[in-house]
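agent: user wants the full assembly modeled, not chains individually. Plan: 1) parse entity lines 2) check alphabet per entity 3) run joint structure prediction 4) return tokens. Steps 1-2 passed, two entities, 1355 residues total. Proceeding.
--- entities ---
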Amino acid sequence: MLTGLATLLAAAWGVSSTAQPREPVYVGVRVCSECHSGPEAGHQFSTWRLTPHAKAFATLSMEESTEIARLSGIPEAPHTARVCLGCHATAADAEEWERDETFLIEDGIQCETCHGPGSEYMDEEVMRNRELAMERGLKMPSGSTCMVCHGPKGSHEAVLSGEPYDLEKALQTIGHPRPESPPVEASTRSSETEALLGPSQHRFTGAMSCAKCHSGPEMGFQFSKWRMGPHARAYAVLGTPAAREMAKRSGVDGDPQASYACLRCHATGAGHDATSFDPGFDFRDGVQCESCHGAGAEYSLEAVMLDRPAATAAGLKDPGPDMCAACHDQGHAGAPFDYGAAVAKIAHPKTPMTVGATEPVYKTPINLALTPDGSELWVTCEASSSTVVVDTSTQEVLTEIEVGGQPHDVTFHPDGKRAYVTNRLDDTLSVIDVATHKVIATIEVGDEPHGVLLDAPGELIYVLNSSQDSVSVIDAETLQETRRLTTSRVPWSLALSPDGEQIFVTNTLSDFVPPRTPPMSEVTVIDAQRGVVEDRLRIPAANLLQGVAWHPSGEFAIVTLNRTKNLVPMTRLLQGWTITNGVGIVWRDGRVDQVLLDQPDLAFPDAADVILTADGRRALVTSSGSDRVAIVDLEKMLSMLEAATPEERERILPNHLAKSTEFVETFVKTGRSPRGITIAADDKTAYVANTLDDTVTVIDLKRLAAVKEIDLGGPEVISQTRWGEQLFHSADITFRRQFSCHSCHPDGHVDGITYDIEPDGIGTDPVDNRTLRGIFDTAPFKWSGLNPSLQRQCGPRLAVFFTRIEPFTPEELEALELYITTIPRPPNRHRALGAPLTEAQRLGKAVYQRTHTNDGRLIPPTGRCINCHPGPLYTDRQIHDVGTRTPLDSKGEFDTPHLTNIYDSAPYLHDGTAYSLEEIWTRFNTYDQHGVTNDLTKDQLNHLIEYLKTL
Amino acid sequence: MKLYHAEALCMFLGLLPTAALAAETDQPSGEQQAVSDLDLPYVYTDWQQYTVEDGLPNDHIFAVEVDGPWVWIGTEDGLARLDKRTGEIRSWKEEDGLPWRVVSALAVHPDTGEVWMGMFGGGLARFSGGRFDHFHQLNSGLVNDVVYGVCVENENIWAATTAGASRYNTQTGEWTIYTEKNAPMEEIWNYGCSYADGKVYLGVWGSGVLEFDIATEHWKDYLDPDGEMEIDLYRDDGIVHVITTGVSYVEKTLWVTTYFGASRYDGRHWRGYFQKDSGAPSDFHNAVQARSANEAWFSTDKGLGQVADFPTDTWVVYTTDHASNTGQAVITRGDRVLETRTIPPNIPHNYVLWTEIDGDDLWVGTSKGLAHARGEGFFPGLRRASDESSIQESEEQETDRGGL
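--- prediction returned ---
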């Protein structure tokens, strides 16, 4: 049992007022309760136990929690998700060494969440000296501490009913003052109660011990169900005034928590002596498993538990109505005990629960490729984590292969025997045997892999690590990475030249450019013979380079691109004012031409992929924003280029909206949001992946018309989320379909561009584009913090400043918001939940949480990182002036951005002028307004950066 | 070190002549012959020189690094690349995107071909596919912008800077700084680095040599057992001085240069080299580059020195006399001059800053240009000339070839 545990621990650890202070660790509420319980302490422990805080971890097992997680784009189960646990359990993200063996995460939000890890101040002598205790880590929280977790959260409001959070009321509920004049009476258990029944036949082990196995979805969340029920509160409730009254009426004087008359029904094991309990048993857990199932120390071993007769012999009981009646027939409710209803309420069957999305599982086909013999079409399906195989002769689905999370691209070995699929959620490459359609290997690659291809002899595999700006070059035979090449920002797709000598790689984000400079993108050229980067071609004023394909002559390749005019206010959309869309012609000798596929009255938004016919006559380009494929007559296009002067090629043609009519033969309507496209070797048929229809459009290239849609087997019902996804990717919402949400937020992320949006003067108030991943509960929105909700952000404001036609209808807005919030959050690649920190990360955490400068001066709370960026979202959602205002800004106060996965969303600051995390403090924090950092040494700053990358 | 000094002393006093006699010459393995004055090293006689007149951006050559057909050259005012196939030189200055004019160190990643350069006052840069990526104190975790040396260790790039060493993991983006806080650096002025066989060696001005084991991440320091004395009190008891300027680690042998002599360490035994009692042209060394455990090249202020054969203590020193437009190769053994050969002008200036070994060839950076020595017929170690006449004949042949 835990009696005297705190004292013992304090002695064992050498905690005292004179001991050398050490790094504090979490000890858990049960240690705190050694002193902070009983009438003399105002029943502080019991008060806590009766609050929602004590159930906070257990509530993550509820279906509502799963729905909240889904709405927030959290792919993990809530009880394992960092973001959820950050507000539902103390020290969830702490390292193992920071949690002492007495600490139990299942106890939810415990004392130390608000008061700080207690190992160094728990000693009574230290505790009684408030100043010393605070030096040793004791914190006295304020209302703002509560609001970090209890601030309005759209995700919770969407699922849970109930009153809005009232801080004052909540503080009254959880308030746990010590009485100024504590009553003098027996507290906790007395030897008198212990001796009543003597030793138990079998020893009690305690609910927390049972919880080691009987928890989690595979066990039907049995522990959590108990923890949320009245039995778990049975002991604590005896500390309430009402219980005291009730006890008095029953003839019990003094503390009900010390009376056997009360305890025999309110605490498991009451009346037995100390030898009847295993270490770790805590009678304060109320009516525990063993009240009904019998004292479990002998049957709790798994081998015994699984052998029913043996378990029974060891003390396992089958509870029945009599067992409940023993306490409940003498209950205080007044009404007869309804056994059936009560059992239904506390039932905790060991039925495995599936924790996951309640949404229909769509396919969301992204890319596709034909086997070298053309007999099969393989389609990567992002939402279903699978690759669908279509028989091209029948144009029917043949099979579906389960691969990793969010598969993106597929390619084949030249011999046709193996296929390779990148999985951008898992950071893996699936290797598949084409004949058997079985995954034969899964290898790790870099972060968020996108495009993949093999060199001509099939010796090397090239995988684009989009989140690391690199290419993994992998030996196809050994599947070992041989080297990693550097690209530009967010490499997306790649194509091998017909002679096998060069690989062109498109990079979807612009390079970092000086302020007030148009974007500048890169096509990375890899020498495929040597496997090294040999050139980097500049694509001026372009961004969102995605698809790439070579002309069979090998003289040039075509890339898809946007031309975003981010330096002028979005005062109109007419004549391609904000974004124009087209392709780049990247010549072998390094020259680059750009032409538009837009037309004056209708844009060609979000050009996603391109393929050329084998005869070199045509290029087919998909527009995911307008559900079309453009058929480009390459002869006419090239003739147009050749007829133009150098000046025209450089300045006119890239911006000429009418020119596409000269070389676009026709547009072919497809399904929703076409992305990947491929052509059969005989140039007769093209296949287009319709991402948001779960179909493949078959285009007859003789007729230049769509002739069939292959159903990939997705659900027929269109959920509200799916509808929102369709709206997000459709340019129908903008004037002349100039752009969609996806245009600036590919993959729900950033385009790396700083925009001048509002009509307040050219260049005034530039704003860096922010990610949509994980934004649901981070209101307000906009750098100015003026938009309190996503609906406000994407509603009429969007129409006024962006889209310039009718805004989304309320129903559309609701669906769009639902989709945006559910955009899956990638895992943090620098640290998994609870994983140990590296030395550098740990040192960085200390900097992040520091309260004093290197020379000992106190840092005011407003100067501490953790003040404005507290976990688990790492934003206090307030507006602050951090000294980053420039002459271009009308104001200096900005909404605090959340820092989750911050490493992945450069550039930084409101105007995107910090290209790296370091620059936030080396260049833009001269007066310590963005945290007190100027006293940091260089290695301290490096450590801080390493820690920030783990958030 | 004390244990070793006694052993080394015995060797020096008692065994060296025997060792010299017993040293292997260019004979089939298993056969050992006593070395004689006829056993001589290879002498480079075919030299070509490059200056700004040939297209270099500047004549002060701080670093040279060979990568296949390319010779990368770091100068005081720009980066250059010489194509060995055509002799063409292409340069980059700041107006061409070079982040900083002074390129003080070069390293080419063997897997990716990326050129990493240290810049004196400009930090670190990566040159790949024509693009310069700049890493400096403000935008990265680099400890200091005054970079003296750079080397590639797997996926990490090491920068030896004036305020410590930085290690940059190119895959995770993590920067680690090593200074006196976490490494046995008595001084933090890092001059050079070298990586091979799982160990990184840092040459630290004022802190000798530091060895970093990448598997264990443990440091080991090599300091002068004589303290900070400018003389070597006990011979071969350790590194000769702590003002270290260069390190080269090859075949598990560490070669070290300082401003007060040079050293060689094979893991057990040290060997110190001074001008007064060896073939070294000077005690003031700028850099060292080793080809093997038995051969190293020393860039000094008074010429280019080579330990041509370690077991026999055979040196060759190259200098050029511009007044007479002649060159000289002096062959020594121990403290004896075996031969002084007149050869064509070799290094463009006797103040040598860097030597790069390119197969059998050499590239030498000096304060007045770059030299290329073609090593046709190169052999390591020693080879016996049949008699004096054979030696004379081969000298005449070399002179006829003209050298340049």
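agent: reporting back. Chain B touches chain A at residues 111-114, 126, 128-131, 133, 137-141, 143, 155, 170-177, 179, 181 (CB under 8 Å). Residues 324 and 375 of chain B are 24 Å apart (CA to CA).
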